[in-house]
């Protein structure tokens, strides 16, 4: 699928992985709406991108994906300004075992909310053009990160939601593919400030450091390359693309019912 003229929405676009996803989409010809709670970083990035890619290519919308009202309004605005939505990158996420309800609210409920609201614009059965949704999960969506049980639970939830939504979409004729990217550790703010966010599991910080030493760290652009693959390769639906500094591979799941 060519990205020329396609319209993308990236949540958590102001920093880190979302910023790199926004950049790769723009580089490949898409128009991108940047959604983020961080207005300062979001506006400043958007201004820089407008200078580089043109005023009409990008748009910043202040949006907390925990809010139905804000998310609905941001998607409506995107559709009005750019004329529809073809790509949704559900990327916004936090890691905080202290405020664990908020972690569930953003990482899992936020992904579900944004997906359902975006379907109203993308679903071919509602007059949309179809398209593709890519969820930023994590390797912690495939196996346990012991210092972060709630973060692990949310990312397993995102992988399960991705696979079930992909199957629901193809069985229903929505014309929308749904995939997930599952990176190991990535050099971002989320990763840098981890130690004071483990709460009652802070005694497991050394074990986490050991995992970081084992896996190494990815750059945000390595994750953005995976996004590009999942968006452009029309054979990919219901996939979880695992990426570490050493390898990139599609996860094989055992289907218990079929
Ligand atoms: N950094 C890492 O090691 C890894 C991160 N991930 C996932 O990648 C995604 C992006 O994380 P990073 O770029 O590392 O984090 P980051 O902290 O650098 O950036 C996250 C962005 O999301 C925004 N955000 C947070 N809550 C929001 C909300 N309620 N509504 C809208 N925007 C919100 C933040 O303002 C920020 O701009 C997350 O889902 C994270 O779980 C996955 C694997 C590894
Ligand atoms: C401290 C947390 C910082 C960032 C959070 C983030 O999302 C990073 C997670 C990074 C790694 C998690 C790794 C978990 C690995 C496992 O549980 C293993 O069981 C391997 C899982 C899948 C391997 C796929 C395969 O090679 O077949």
Automatic annotation (TrEMBL):
Q: Which UniProt keywords apply?
A: Fatty acid metabolism, Lipid metabolism, Oxidoreductase, Prostaglandin metabolism
Which SUPFAM superfamilies does the record match to this protein? NAD(P)-binding Rossmann-fold domains (SSF51735)
Domain of life according to the entry: Eukaryota
The first-level EC class reads oxidoreductase
Q: PANTHER family annotated for this entry?
A: 15-HYDROXYPROSTAGLANDIN DEHYDROGENASE [NAD(+)]
* Recorded family membership: Belongs to the short-chain dehydrogenases/reductases (SDR) family.
Q: What does this protein do?
A: Catalyzes the NAD-dependent dehydrogenation (oxidation) of a broad array of hydroxylated polyunsaturated fatty acids (mainly eicosanoids and docosanoids, including prostaglandins, lipoxins and resolvins), yielding their corresponding keto (oxo) metabolites. Decreases the levels of the pro-proliferative prostaglandins such as prostaglandin E2 (whose activity is increased in cancer because of an increase in the expression of cyclooxygenase 2) and generates oxo-fatty acid products that can profoundly influence cell function by abrogating pro-inflammatory cytokine expression.
Please give the name of this protein: 15-hydroxyprostaglandin dehydrogenase [NAD(+)]
